[in-house]
Amino acid sequence: MTYCVGLKLNDGLVMLADTRTNAGVDNISTYRKLFSWEVPGERAIVMMSSGNLSITQGVITRLNRAIHQAETDGTVETILNAETMFRVAQIVGDTMREVQGRHSAALEQRGAAADAMIMIGGQRKGGEHRLFLVYTAGNFIEATDDTGYFQIGDHKYGKPILDRVLEKSTPIPEAVKAALVSMDSTLRSNLSVGMPLDLAIIRTDTFELSHQKRIEADDQEFSKLSEAWSLALRNAFHGLPGNFDS
Known about the structure:
By secondary structure, the chain is α+β, with helices and mostly antiparallel strands. The chain has helices at 53-70, 85-109, 159-165, 172-189, 220-238, and strands at residues 3-9, 12-17, 20-22, 28-30, 34-39, 43-51, 116-124, 130-134, 140-142, 149-153, 197-203, 211-215.
């Protein structure tokens, strides 16, 4: 299982992913699910993946291969030279369809799910920062003012905090805390989501990754945040009004 969350704010994009992959209770591994590309001053792109690992790795490999080919063949279109972020999402969607077409039938014949999703956040010079969600079939949707964040994987535990505190105007530091609390809630309730975590931030109109960090299990700041959130919830619960047993 997986939990990834991407936030689109006035001030930029916040992307957070766990790294746990499991094929059973006794087969747990760590794989990166957050990938980034940048041409400083021109564009920055972050993608996060969930679902069948062979499918998502195949998509990322093909995207990187195209970037490498473009170094010697200027006619190759890639996510780093596409004219818009919308076109970037189309390229990822097309690549998803190609990989699915090659592998999904064989996987499903053997009883393995081929479902996969990729979240894309980024900005190129001359355009706005945008957030997309690509589905298994290669189709995609974009985050809007009404829906300013996306989640993939096991989202149910981390959604309530985002719905209560997140707004377009939320500053990046506060949004990072919201994303981390959302992740912490998921970690506590789902053993198939696990540390370490990968965090990436793209601030509006910087066209580069302003921050990227791996948060390990022994990270002191994350531990303090987790403990403070648990204490705040307990205090809020005990302070609730009402006497329902009378």
